[in-house]
Design goal:
Layout (H helix, E strand, L loop, with lengths): L3 E5 L8 H13 L5 E5 L35 E5 H6 L13 E3 L1 H8 L4 E4 L1
Parallel strand pairs: 1-2, 1-5, 2-3, 3-4
């Protein structure tokens, strides 16, 4: 079975990329047992707790990331440099239990996957 990585690099609001990515993760998780999510660049903001999407007239799909462990998904990674560039402390990442990795370690982990799908 192929190992599939999903890379989230866009902020949660302003586009539908995050919601579409989450839908794709849920669909693929039914077919593959080895799925991982990587959050880089503005994608790290997908993991922030206490978001208020109604203030920008958006739906709160971000909270849905929290159900992914119920689908036996366990591999979640965030880029430490992306967090630092945005002034985000790792403690603020409440949507998923992510491992915060350096850019080098994150790339090394990402290289272990056969397919990479970006959102």
């Amino acid at each position: 079975m192929k190992r599939i990585a999903f890379v989230f690099s866009q902020a949660p609001h302003g586009s539908s990329a995050g919601r579409e990515g989450l839908d794709a993760v849920l669909a693929v998780s039914a077919l593959s047992e080895d799925v991982a999510l990587f959050f880089i660049s503005d994608g790290v903001m997908q993991l922030l707790g206490d978001q208020q999407p109604e203030k920008v007239l958006a739906r709160n799909y971000v909270a849905t990331f929290g159900v992914l462990p119920l689908y036996d998904l366990e591999n979640f990674y965030a880029c430490s440099a992306s967090l630092a560039e945005r002034g985000i402390d790792a403690a603020a990442l409440k949507a998923l239990p992510v491992a915060v990795l350096s850019p080098h370690a994150l790339r090394a982990e990402l290289e272990k996957y056969d397919q990479i799908i970006s959102f």
